[in-house]
Specification:
Layout (H helix, E strand, L loop, with lengths): L1 H24 L2 E4 L1 H7 L4 H35 L5 H55 L3 E4 L13 H10 L1
Parallel strand pairs: 1-2
């Protein structure tokens, strides 16, 4: 029994020592995705350009909204003095205008979503490619995002290296 206990302790010790040795040879890096998004041309700058592209359409929609609101106020103010036929015609025109406006808003939202998703996919692809390059060049066994590692030493941070690779792409 004593020999079995000694053998078990020795095996546990050797196994633990081999794990510790293997862990000391693993090279790990950590990347801050938020910093990449801020600094990479595929990140925030791309979304800002999308916003700039959509800004004129948004301004036109705001103008249309104001015009429609003004027409509705005028209709509400003048409705008591209008004939029944004129009232029905104006109400129908306003309803059609409101539907058209809602369709334009929906189209703009859809376009914004589509452009945003395309930019996000490009950002993710560029990030993966840059991380793969940094991992291969630096012989890293693993690169984690800072969200996946609740704590990491600043010596493990490879964000700047990944950002340089993303800017080259």
């Amino acid at each position: 029994m004593k020999k079995l206990l000694i053998a078990l302790c020795a095996t546990t010790f050797l196994f633990g020592a081999s794990i510790a040795q293997a862990a000391s040879t693993i090279k790990i890096g950590v990347v801050n995705v938020a910093s990449l998004f801020e600094g990479a041309p595929q990140g925030k700058a791309k979304l800002d350009s999308i916003k700039a592209t959509l800004e004129p359409k948004l301004a036109a929609l705001k103008t249309s909204q104001k015009a429609l609101t003004d027409k509705m106020k005028t209709f509400q103010r003048n409705a008591p003095t209008m004939s029944k036929a004129k009232k029905e015609e104006t109400a129908k025109t306003l309803a059609t205008s409101q539907q058209d406006f809602q369709q334009q808003v929906g189209a703009l939202q859809k376009e914004e979503t589509t452009l945003g998703q395309a930019a996000q996919q490009k950002f993710i692809a560029a990030t993966r490619k840059a991380i793969d390059t940094v991992a291969a060049n630096g012989k890293f066994d693993m690169i984690l995002t800072n969200q996946a590692a609740p704590y990491s030493s600043t010596s493990l941070d490879v964000t700047q290296k990944v950002l340089v690779q993303m800017k080259k792409a």
